[in-house]
């Protein structure tokens, strides 16, 4: 038990909210913006999305093709490593399962690791098992409206069970890889996996 | 995390509050003694953890205000109305108390001497804190003989009023002793009598006037409330600055304004 902070009482959540907050997180009703640089702006006319296989095969969609894929509406809690959590956020997007099965027709085969690459140069890594089986999406709608650029629009990866830096804003490519490789924050001291329930914020956290 | 790439866990440490300094009506600086502190880079932050008697805990992140050269670690905390942690740090904590923290954290929004200049810092409100660590680090390095002409620095700092300018006197002293440092204030809500400086939010015309042109390739750090950072960073890119040289840190609710 860590030492008691003299005179600190804190703000208690309802039992329901508390049970949905991972250790060290607090609930916000706002939607904070965290980005390491300027917000990239890209026209939908030039936007495309690529799935790149470790075997060199690729599948690519234009904006119209991509958003015509079968879409899902997802309601999830999200957890940012900077300590805020937001409950019941509502998104629309394409399941990564759908993207993979569409790409299979073009010869793209699965590999155990994924690197997401984004406009502006941001990258992040996730195991394939964490973006398949109904666990991840490429989302382009938030709360029923197009995803604003500062929140990652036109489209961002959505991997809500990991810290939110894994839900890469402005995503343009998922690169399948045979071995794991750190992305942007993972190279700057943040955890390779990032499970909020195990409080894996920084490299070295167990 | 550490700069040498080791992956030992960033340990929680028990700091002792040495002093609490009143910076402005809404901000205080906690001066801390942190046994075993591994050192940090200007721009990094720490996680602070509070524990109530029944074991309930709250964590928040705060930017480090002190430069790596200081033996003590300083955090400058803005008291947020309705905040859970900042009112405690501002009003309850006093010299002799202990405070749990771990760090340093963050390896991108950092500047040290080898990164070079010119150094362009743009801040709003308590967004000045990591920028001040950079200015203090630069100042400490210049004092030891680093060539000054290679590291010119400019700070453009937006505050609501003169009374809310954090580190006001220290900034004035730094400028007085250093011809290669320029500090420009803009006061967005209330100005003292006879104020001849800017009196509006940072905009394109102000950036064109104050910032180095993109051809000088300034290292740019922007920190403040989200709307300020979004607007400043986008405008800098429109003006021709390379996005990779514009590093940002946003805080606060999406609607916050300075």
Tag the structure with descriptive keywords.
heterodimer, A: 206 residues, mainly beta, Sulfite Oxidase, Chain A, domain 2, 6-stranded mixed beta sheet, 5-stranded mixed beta sheet, B: 258 residues, alpha/beta, Elongation Factor Tu (Ef-tu), domain 3, Rossmann fold, 5-stranded parallel beta sheet, globular, disordered N terminus, disordered C terminus
Task: Describe it.
The complex is a heterodimer of chains A (about 210) and B (about 260). Chain A has about 210 residues and is mainly β. Chain A has one domain (about 25-30, about 45-200): Alpha-Beta Complex (Sulfite Oxidase, Chain A, domain 2), CATH 3.90.420. Chain A contains three helices and eleven strands. The model of chain A has no long low-confidence stretch (mean pLDDT about 95). With about 260 residues, chain B is α/β, with parallel strands linked by helices. Chain B folds into two domains: about 15-105, Translation factors (Elongation Factor Tu (Ef-tu), domain 3, Beta Barrel), CATH 2.40.30; about 115-250, Rossmann fold, CATH 3.40.50. Helix content of chain B is about 20%, strand content about 30%. Chain B has helices spanning about 85-90, 130-145, 170-175, 205-210, 225-240; strands spanning about 15-25, 25-35, 45-50, 55-65, 75-80, 100-105, 120-125, 155-160, 180-185, 220-225, 245-250. Chain B has a six-stranded antiparallel β-sheet. A five-stranded parallel β-sheet of chain B has the order 9-8-7-10-11, with helices on both faces. Chain B is globular and about 55 Å long. The chains are: A mainly beta (about 210), B alpha/beta (about 260). Chains A and B meet through loops of A and strand 3, strand 4, strand 6, helix 5 and strand 11 of B.
- Poorly predicted segments of chain B: 1-5, 254-258
- Kindly estimate the percentage of residues of chain B that lie in beta strands according to DSSP: 25-35%
Structural class of chain B: alpha/beta
Provide the CATH top-level class of chain A. Alpha Beta
Q: How many distinct beta strands of chain B? A: 11
**Over all CA atoms, what is the radius of gyration of chain A?**
18 Å
Can you count the helices of chain B?
A: 5
What percentage of amino acids of chain A are in beta strands? 25-35%
Give the overall average pLDDT of chain A. 96
Class by alpha and beta content of chain A = mainly beta
From the alpha carbons, calculate the radius of gyration of chain B and give it in angstroms. 18 Å
CATH topology of chain A: Sulfite Oxidase, Chain A, domain 2
The SSE order of chain A reads HEEEHEEHEEEEEE
The CATH superfamily name of chain A is Oxidoreductase, molybdopterin-binding domain
What is the residue-mean pLDDT of chain B, rounded to a whole number? 93
CATH architecture of chain A: Alpha-Beta Complex
Order the strands across the largest sheet of chain B as they lie in space.
4-3-6-1-2-5
């Amino acid at each position: 038990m860590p030492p008691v902070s003299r005179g600190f009482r804190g703000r208690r959540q309802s039992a329901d909210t508390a049970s949905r907050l991972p250790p060290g997180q607090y609930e916000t009703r706002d939607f904070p913006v965290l980005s390491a640089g300027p917000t990239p702006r890209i026209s939908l006319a030039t936007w495309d999305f690529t799935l790149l296989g470790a075997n060199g095969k690729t599948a690519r969609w234009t904006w119209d093709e991509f958003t015509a894929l079968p879409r899902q509406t997802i309601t999830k809690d999200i957890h940012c490593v900077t300590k805020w959590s937001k409950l019941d956020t509502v998104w629309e997007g394409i399941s990564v399962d759908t993207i993979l099965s569409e790409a299979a027709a073009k010869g793209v085969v699965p590999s155990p690791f994924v690197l997401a690459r984004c406009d502006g140069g941001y990258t992040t890594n996730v195991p394939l098992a964490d973006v398949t089986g109904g666990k991840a999406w490429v989302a382009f709608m938030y709360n029923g409206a197009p995803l604003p650029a500062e929140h990652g629009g036109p489209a961002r990866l959505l991997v809500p069970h990991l810290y939110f830096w894994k839900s890469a804003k402005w995503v343009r490519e998922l690169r399948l890889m045979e071995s794991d490789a750190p992305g942007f924050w993972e190279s700057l001291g943040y955890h390779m996996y990032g499970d909020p329930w195990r409080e894996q914020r920084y490299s070295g956290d167990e | 995390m550490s700069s040498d790439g080791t992956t030992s866990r960033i340990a929680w440490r028990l700091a002792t509050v040495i002093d609490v300094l009143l910076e402005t009506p809404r901000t205080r600086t906690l001066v801390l003694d942190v046994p075993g502190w591994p050192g940090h880079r200007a721009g990094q932050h720490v996680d602070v953890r509070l524990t109530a008697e029944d074991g309930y805990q709250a964590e928040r992140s705060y930017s480090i205000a002190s430069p790596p050269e200081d033996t003590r670690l300083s955090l400058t905390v803005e008291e947020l109305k309705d905040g859970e942690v900042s009112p405690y740090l501002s009003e309850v904590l006093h010299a002799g108390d202990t405070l749990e923290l771990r760090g340093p954290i963050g390896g991108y929004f950092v500047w040290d001497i080898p990164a070079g200049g010119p150094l362009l810092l743009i801040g709003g409100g308590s967004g000045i804190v990591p920028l001040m660590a950079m200015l203090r680090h630069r100042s400490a390095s210049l004092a030891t003989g680093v060539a000054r002409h290679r590291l010119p620095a400019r700070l453009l700092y937006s505050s609501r009023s003169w009374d809310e300018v954090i580190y006001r006197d220290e900034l004035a002293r730094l400028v007085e002793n250093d011809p290669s440092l320029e500090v420009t204030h803009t006061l967005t809500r209330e100005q003292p009598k006879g104020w001849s400086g800017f009196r509006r939010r940072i905009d394109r015309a102000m950036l064109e006037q104050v910032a180095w042109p993109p051809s000088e390739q300034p290292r740019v750090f922007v920190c403040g409330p989200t709307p300020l950072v979004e607007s400043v960073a986008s405008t800098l890119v429109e003006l021709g600055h390379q996005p990779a040289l514009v590093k940002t840190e946003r805080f606060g609710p999406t609607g916050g304004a300075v």
